[in-house]
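Figure caption, in words: inputs first, then the predicted bound structure.
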Amino acid sequence: MYCMGNRTTTDTFWDESAETLSYDELENLQLTRLKKIVERASRSEFYGGRFAEIGLRADSISSLDDITKIPFTSKQDLRDSYPYGLLCEPKDRLVRMHVSSGTTGQATAVFYTRTDLEVWADLLARCMYMTGARPGDTFQNLTGYGLFTGGLGFHYGAERLGLLTIPSGAGNSKRQIQIMRDFSTSVIHIIPSFALLLMDVITELGIDPRRDLSLKIAFVGAEPYSEEVRRRIEDFYGIKVYNSYGLSEMNGPGVAFECRCQDGLHLWEDAFLVEVVNPETLKPVPEGTYGELVLTTLTREAMPILRYRTKDLTRIIPGSCSCGRVHKRIDRIRGRSDDMFIIKGVNVFPIQVEQVLMNISEVGNNYVIMLRREKNLDEMVVRVEVTDRIFVEDMRRLQQLQRKIAHELKGELLLTPKIELVEPNSLPRSDGKATRLIDQRTT
Ligand code: AMP
Ligand code: ZN
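Bound structure (adenosine monophosphate present):
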């Protein structure tokens, strides 16, 4: 055992008492925190009004099952209460604001007190430590600094852990690679679409990532990606990729994270209470069954959010993890319920398309799904970048590839999309989360 900051840790755990307490102890802690957070939340205009309507008070909660007495909170509730309706602290106690990256509708703002920031940094330090990142590592944070929570969230977590932290931000591929080489970056945080695009730039520059770079760990998250993409990134860079999940309504990253077992993401249950519900009936689903993730902040001061419907679809992985942490694990996010699209009567998640594409070696690192309506007929077009290797070859090979992709997609989706093959690096790139679906159908 040795001491790090004010945390006592072994070589395996950043905060052993918080990560390995018994499940009974964890539930007792959750209950104490749940009562407190209900009391705190009632100070806000939004929850104060709601609780008064239904007669809910902190002493209405006497067991964790009583959480069902609390109504769900939706994104729309946050929008309706924008900007200050959920605040539980006076403005002079707030030190930070972020917003959610939602692409449609009114943005939602999230506020933090100094303690909120400390708790958040600590949770992220716990996540990173769990994967083997240690003082002495150089950490390059290749995500947007600004309103997005991924940049500053990881930044302060990494400093808390004692990593040499380089705030290199999003985009700027060549400079990123230069920094990696100059400072022997060993740990990175990056969104999956950028990790894929950077692969093309590294190849173009004639760099062999295993020989010329010192990378060993990547934290990859903030948008859905498939196991196939994880494998591509790991194989190319010669590193381990750990899935990182979070959302601004729950601080940002640091909600759930993979340990070295890479078998699901531990959700920090001392900070968040987790439920998985059927998105239609809103009833809990049995452990192991997919549903919508619902989260309650247990420690947030400035802006507690209770029973938040994340729209993210996942399941609790039954059983315990061999790493020794008690916190339940969620599975890789399958997508958001509002990402699902219906085409010719078939329900499709973009991630299903990605799984198929990324298993085909001639397929490059970028794609986009387009939905069109022509003469009242819906059409799904998958535009796919091919690798250099195949594109220089003849038309016949390209047509074969087109047929192969269509065939494999039909096996997964039960419908045959139109496939358009395009040159490497020709699809639009973004510095932030990728747009994988363009729906041009008018309803
Ligand atoms: P934001 O609050 O704008 O940062 O967006 C949060 C949303 O990003 C979540 O609700 C998820 O839909 C998505 N997200 C974050 N991390 C992951 C991940 N590891 N896998 C899949 N989706 C993710
Ligand atoms: Zn584990």
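The chain has a mean pLDDT of 94.
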